[in-house]
Amino acid sequence: MQTDQRATTGRTDTVQGGRAHPDEARRDGSSALYGTSLPRALTRFVTRYFVFSGRASRSEFWWWFLSFAVVSVVLSFVNKAMVPPVQSADAGAILGYAVQVSTLQLIWALVNFIGAASLTIRRLHDAGISGWWWFIQLVPGPGQIAMVVLVALPERASGARFERLQSSETPRRGSTLTPTR
User: Fold this and answer.
1) Which of 124, 123, 131, 148 is nearest to 59 (CA)?
2) What is the pTM of this model?
3) Which residues contact 106 (CB under 8 A, 6 or more apart)?
4) Residue 37: which region, alpha, beta or left (left: phi > 0; alpha: psi -120 to 50)?
């Protein structure tokens, strides 16, 4: 681990392999936490639920994704254990059974929808991609594959343009802002 003095901001950041250490993230939370832990990633997911600006590291994204998938599988088993099997081959009975079995999973998905969208958009920002690419996953099949590829991309320095400015870093009128990372 080495220390890097940032001449432009006067901050001292702890750097691991060229990346900011998770404990040295910007105070406004707009920078990504590289190499973060599961509890820290989940805490950040909850605290930045409605924040669509800034960046999220791959570890932040994939820890949340793993947690979401595990809870979804557990809820699937809980639902199936609680709902008695369908007794007739009637289409209405089968539809009713499907609705009962998927109720907890549907609630879980709805609770996580906005947070997942904001996290995915921040992950795209970290890869240097506009958040508008989030909509590509609405294309059935190839859209979901493209989204998996996009969120798996490594971070890029060009993603710094998606970070919010701290009040002390506000550019003067007519000046050019250059990213510090």
Assistant:
1) 123
2) 0.70
3) none
4) beta
Q: What is the pLDDT of residue 87?
A: 74
Rounded Cα gap, residues 123 and 127, in angstroms: 7
Task: Give the pLDDT confidence of 106-165 residue by residue, as tens digits.
Answer: 899 999 999 999 999 999 999 999 999 999 999 999 999 999 999 999 998 888 888 865
Closest CA to 165 of 34, 33, 26, 50: 26
Confidence class for position 169, pLDDT limits 50, 70, 90 = very low
Name the residue among 81, 40, 78, 73 with its Cα closest to residue 59. 40
Using a 10 angstrom Cβ sphere, with 0-12 exposed, 13-18 middle and 19 or more buried, the burial of residue 5 is: exposed
C-alpha distances out from residue 50 to 26, 87, 110, 135, 175, Å: 18, 43, 14, 17, 31
For residue 1 the two structure tokens come to: 């681990």
Q: How far is the C-alpha of 104 from the C-alpha of 77, rounded, in Å? A: 10
Q: Is the pLDDT of residue 12 over 60?
A: no
